[in-house]
Design goal:
Largest sheet of chain D: none
Helix content of chain D: over 70%
Strand order of the largest sheet of chain A: 5-6-7-3-8
Shape of chain D: elongated
Strand content of chain D: under 5%
Bound molecules: protoporphyrin IX containing FE, adenosine-5'-triphosphate, magnesium ion
Distance between the termini of chain D: 25 Å
Oligomer: heteropentamer
CATH superfamily of chain A: P-loop containing nucleotide triphosphate hydrolases
CATH architecture of chain A: 3-Layer(aba) Sandwich
Number of domains of chain D: 1
Number of strands of chain D: 0
CATH topology of chain A: Rossmann fold
Chains: A alpha/beta, C mainly alpha, D mainly alpha
Radius of gyration of chain A: 17 Å
Largest interface: D-E, 60 and 59 residues
Number of strands of chain A: 8
Structural class of chain A: alpha/beta
Strand content of chain A: 25-35%
Order of helices and strands of chain D: HHHHHHHH
Structural class of chain D: mainly alpha
Amino acid sequence: MTVSTAPLLSASGLAILRGERVLFRGIGLTLQPGEAIVLRGANGAGKTTLLRMLAGLTRPEAGEIARPAAHHWIGHKEGIKPQETPRIHLALWAKAWGSSASIADILDQLALTRAADVPGRYLSAGQRRRTAFARLLLEARPLWLLDEPYTALDAAGKTMLDQVISGHLRTGGAIIASMHDAAGFPVTAEVTL
Amino acid sequence: MTVSTAPLLSASGLAILRGERVLFRGIGLTLQPGEAIVLRGANGAGKTTLLRMLAGLTRPEAGEIARPAAHHWIGHKEGIKPQETPRIHLALWAKAWGSSASIADILDQLALTRAADVPGRYLSAGQRRRTAFARLLLEARPLWLLDEPYTALDAAGKTMLDQVISGHLRTGGAIIASMHDAAGFPVTAEVTL
Amino acid sequence: MWSAFANPHKFLKFSAVAAPLFYGAGMLCILWGLWQGLWIVPKDDYQGGDIMRVMFIHVPAAWLAMVSYSGLAVASFVWFIWRHELADIAAKAIAPLGAVWTALCLATGSIWGKPTWGTWWQWDDARMMSVLFLLFLFLGYMALRASMDSRQKAARAGAILAMVGAVNVPLIKFSVDLFTSLHQPASVITADGPKMAAVYLTPLLISGLGHALLFGGLVMTHMRTEIRERRIARLTAQALEG
Amino acid sequence: MNAAPIWAAFRQAFAEAWAGGAGALLPLGFLGGAAVLVPLGIGSDTETLKAVGPGIIWVSLALSSLVTLERIFQADVEDGTLDLWLQTGAPMAAVAAAKTLAHWLAAGLPLALASPLLALMFQAQASLDLIAHLGLYALGSLAFFFWGGVGAALSATVRRGGLLISIIALPLYVPTAIFGSLAMTGGIGSDGAPMLLAASTLFACAVAPYAMAAALRLAAD
Amino acid sequence: MNAAPIWAAFRQAFAEAWAGGAGALLPLGFLGGAAVLVPLGIGSDTETLKAVGPGIIWVSLALSSLVTLERIFQADVEDGTLDLWLQTGAPMAAVAAAKTLAHWLAAGLPLALASPLLALMFQAQASLDLIAHLGLYALGSLAFFFWGGVGAALSATVRRGGLLISIIALPLYVPTAIFGSLAMTGGIGSDGAPMLLAASTLFACAVAPYAMAAALRLAAD
Ligand code: HEM
Ligand SMILES: Nc1ncnc2c1ncn2[C@@H]1O[C@H](COP(=O)(O)OP(=O)(O)OP(=O)(O)O)[C@@H](O)[C@H]1O
Ligand SMILES: Nc1ncnc2c1ncn2[C@@H]1O[C@H](COP(=O)(O)OP(=O)(O)OP(=O)(O)O)[C@@H](O)[C@H]1O
Ligand SMILES: [Mg+2]
Ligand SMILES: [Mg+2]
């Protein structure tokens, strides 16, 4: 894949203030299909803030972001309502995004079959994370923005997620993930805040 | 330390139902001073539920728990109010527990000096965890119950926590921690759910 | 006999016989009371003429409304302290029935009030308001139970509410003495014994007994259903466990 | 415009509104409770009650719309759902309108439907007017929910913003309340009042969603 | 008994009550809003207004205690604070009472203090009675907050349990509302009413904390 393709995401000169203080400035990055960038930085360095910015949720103080591709965003908070079971949650977003993926298959792939009908309020921490990751499989989108994806996952869950991410990268997708541990998928570059 | 000391915690025959289903049954454990037990189990196996039970928060369906020693509990949720800064949070619990520890020192030890006056609502995920762990140092208590303690911590944070835990064990404390990764402190036994 | 109420198995056996007996005896008493009340006793013009005959439903219903709430509170207390599952089953069974009898008291009271007091409802009347809120308490109790996710939690939450809500019962009973009310003061259940004329009193007491028996029978039937449902749930869980 | 996300937002909000227990029964309980407490304080003079009845119903509608709305958007911020909705590609104003409509259907409309009963409790004469009033209450409460939604969205990041909502939303309620009660009392100048009420509701439905969308974007930032 | 945790609970709750924006200004806004909306619906006949004034103030107190309390315990459950309080070793009933008291001081008492102003808005004659009434409102609202706290604790695990709270708490409010309005209207048999009001408040303060504690233990389970 040496054909020069258009980047899925490019940003330059990003800066943000938090409480009168510059959290970071001059951050730029470019992401081509098949690439994985890992964000590193101490607690409170601004990884979550940068990811939210790239997702279009937070307005940068300065800098430019171009994101021609569709993206998925999985943050610290999973976006599952207390009354929503994983099955209902996925059905809802399948509907909203017009996806026709098989929800039963996705639940199976994420080992959520047993918890499929437990309301969000009672899910375990790992089950909540898995439900959020299930959204990634609902609709194919080139760009994935993942904030500390390994959080709360057991060993099997991490392996499963690594496979999903590797598969995504192989088929021309790209990811940016913030992480404190070693990544279990091929990393193109690391950005440290 | 071969002198037979009284256990800090002992439990036997613990069982719980969740949604008409037995989550676990027949769980028993005994914890002597200086011991560390790690709880293992897949996502949703019941680690959090067992820890809450040992902390006296959840009522077991069957079984006995004897907990003669005082304990600290750090769960998935940190117990920090949106308007509380780490400094205020620690001052509050120091007051409630009648502790006279130096809050400035503790903030320093957890590398929270910069975030000491940021309201809970704006803390980063790791800063929230660190604030919760700071409570462990406010008052010396023999038994620590920790649910996935490494979550959201950066490398430096994990090292720091390992040191704190090792120190606690050396001075006759004991811990039970649920974990998905390898522990960075000496583990006496693993219990798998 | 009391042991039968502590042990679900014995209770099932006991109630299999007792519930139909209660229905039968209860219906007999009620019908006799109604027959006396509607056709035999003289009408009392001071109490609104023929409409006063509604008394033979209204007063037993009022008594049962208070008694059933007290029963709910007592059963909740027993469950809360001793964790007798049957007490919770009883509480759960009493609530909807208590609501029905309370509604009956309100409805008959209103119907009686229109000709005698000239109004269906009097908003600042402590007796009427406190009975209305008794109905609210029953409904709130049911809504609270329904919103809890497990049976154990529903029982605990319900018990707390039922015990706290018991403040309302004395308020209902003594409201007519404490406040100026359109409603007449008690004339049957008073400290110095009944003051009502015997022609009215006997059928009224028999009716009251009838309502109590019918209520008791219905509670037992509800409890039997609930016991069986809990058994099925338990067996299903065991089967799933393998 | 793709209607699927908007429809999904509506369904989610509706499920959420019904999840907290017994659904529409509860706002009814709230309204009933308010209606019952008022005369306790006021006394039971028939004339006074008849005079205050419609006013009390309006106020109860306004207050219970506030209680209902307090948590809508705040919960979305706290559990991360708002992030997802902001990124669906659908216009956020439409999503916000769908959510508000769902909550109105679950909590507002049942209140309006119960209003004739309440009016009777307040000694009103049973008449066809009560049915007409039901329509006015329904219209008015729709406006209350939309303006309340703006307040809720503005205070979504402030924990315990419920009372802040009241301060923001109550002034917005005033025109609706004026036209509504004018339409009902039928005094001088009340001929056009139902039209004015409808117009003010229409205005709320047209303007509030954009305000909500802007406020929600701010809440996520 | 060690008072330190109880005092800490009080301080935390007080800080929380004031954090959500402008603190006591907000309940005042709420009460003011209600006071403004009511005459709008009722019309401005002096006699009617004077008659309904005290009732409206009672109702506003009751409703705003509900709005305030909705989030107290629910927030504690959601952010994990409840777990900490349950493990302080201090009696949970005392902690719950301290929290309730703090919220009453921040939101209930200011309302009571504002009542003479509101009464004047409702065309009441300025007189010393208004000050006496202030005391009655303060007493009564304390009972409202305690019973409301029971409702809030019971529905703390149910999201959007606010409306469930209303259904639970309103019946518990009745004795207080009855005695309170009786004491104010000063009709026949009202001699003992202030005493009865005080007794019902005392009863609430004595019983409600235990019910709250039991309900909170349940919410954490
Ligand atoms: C909706 C309105 C009414 C309600 C909520 C109501 C409620 C009650 C209650 C709770 C009792 C039981 C009192 C006790 O045992 O101490 C009772 C008894 C009674 N009620 Fe009513 N009532 C209403 C209307 C009326 C009316 C309109 C009348 C007739 C004018 C009436 C006549 C009676 C009588 C004669 C008793 C028996 C009292 C006794 O002798 O102990 N009630 N009612
Ligand atoms: N209003 C504010 N005042 C002061 N500081 C603030 C404010 N809001 C946010 N901050 C700071 O901004 C930073 C936000 O960081 P962010 O959550 O992006 O960190 P992160 O790199 O994701 O950390 P973690 O690894 O802990 O998740 C934190 O250091 C926080 O203390
Ligand atoms: N009401 C309920 N109905 C059905 N299942 C329930 C209910 N409440 C809890 N559960 C199940 O109980 C389990 C609770 O597990 P718990 O949170 O203790 O897991 P854990 O071992 O801590 O998992 P994790 O590693 O993901 O944190 C989950 O599997 C959850 O689905
Ligand atoms: Mg982060
Ligand atoms: Mg867990």
